[in-house]
Amino acid sequence: MSLIVQKFGGTSVADADRIRNVARIITETYRRGHSLVVVLSAQGDTTDDLIAKAAEINPHGSKREMDMLLSTGEQISCALCSMAIEAMGYPVVSLTGWQAGFQTDSAYGGARIKKIGTERVLAELDKKKIVIVTGFQGVNKYDDITTLGRGGSDTSAVALAAVLHADLCQIYTDVDGVYTADPRVVKGAKKLDEITYDEMMELATLGAQVLHNRSVEMAKRYHVKLEVLSSFSGQPGTKVKEVAKTMEKPYISGVAKDANIARLAVVGLQDRPGIAFQIFSALAKEKINVDIIIQSIGRHDTKDITFTVSRDDMDRAREVLMDMKDSLGFDHVDVTDEIAKVSIVGAGMINNPGVASRMFEAIYNAGINIHMIATSEIKVSVLVDKCDADMAVQAVHSRFFGE
Ligand code: ADP
Ligand code: ASP
Ligand code: MG
Asked: What is the mean pLDDT of the chain?
């Protein structure tokens, strides 16, 4: 007998029939003799709908109240799913993040898990109950409700699997597993039987929202056996693990797109030491994460520094820069969110020279201009106009994986 954590995403619990379908998967696992902890997301578009509702009342509502609101979506799906399981005659209990022991820091809207007290969950498992836990939420030291950031239920599931030393964490979603690119957008995307934690972490960070990137980081750190599979098809999914068997074969495992970014260019900076330090330390103080950075020579002994941030940080980043205009002495700041990042990821890339140039060639052949480039040992990212991004992804994917 083993302990399994199963997580079901929003589409999987979107309506009554789907909740019954999920209840069937859960109870079948339970009938096979496993202890079972289940993490659920909010139904369908509930979280988006709640955000829209808040905007109608107060577009600048505090983050604390937003978390109070958004956490309700997961409570609904958990209560309904528990009722479906009760109706099937199985012992079940649903728990909120607080009841399940999730303690987080106070970063409302993007809280980090500090600790999970497992007493209640273990007590319920001892009573042979199926335990259903709300994803995406916890409480901070003031006992206020926090949420972990969009897509955070994956992280709730992996965190529970880690602290409970579960034998397996299954992430059920609306596709059959992890593909070489988003199968809903890219023609010819292929399902991967397995992928390494590192590659999956890069793909998730670079825009493949099939897994929350923090969930993969945590799975790697705590050696959680992770599997991504469909709640609809019954097909085997993708295993995320330390070393993939097929690692030597394909040197690229996937292509990802992130359209949720913005580019800021500080134009006409004085060319003297300390400028980059001043800019990026001010941004760091505001907890703004900076991604690709380029410094280039401008006219008349000046330089330009261009960088990307998450779209959500765009306005704040601009404010930080404008606050420094006098001390830095630059000409102006150019800001745009009409851009997207397209990336290839693969652990085998490091031993295969020419991978980046093949990517650039594919993008050139598609007639698309590249604005910025960043590389690491296992990824190459380029910045293109947002309107070209899907075409760039398709071109790059076809180049490496065929149609
Ligand atoms: P859930 O609600 O189950 O958490 P998400 O919408 O968060 O589901 O993630 C699943 C979606 O991720 C899929 O429907 C798919 O469109 C998208 N996706 C993006 N990149 C990939 C990829 N490389 N492999 C599989 N799915 C991907
Ligand atoms: N319901 C939350 C969201 O839509 C968390 C999740 O689904 O993982 O982002
Ligand atoms: Mg998700």
From this structure: 95
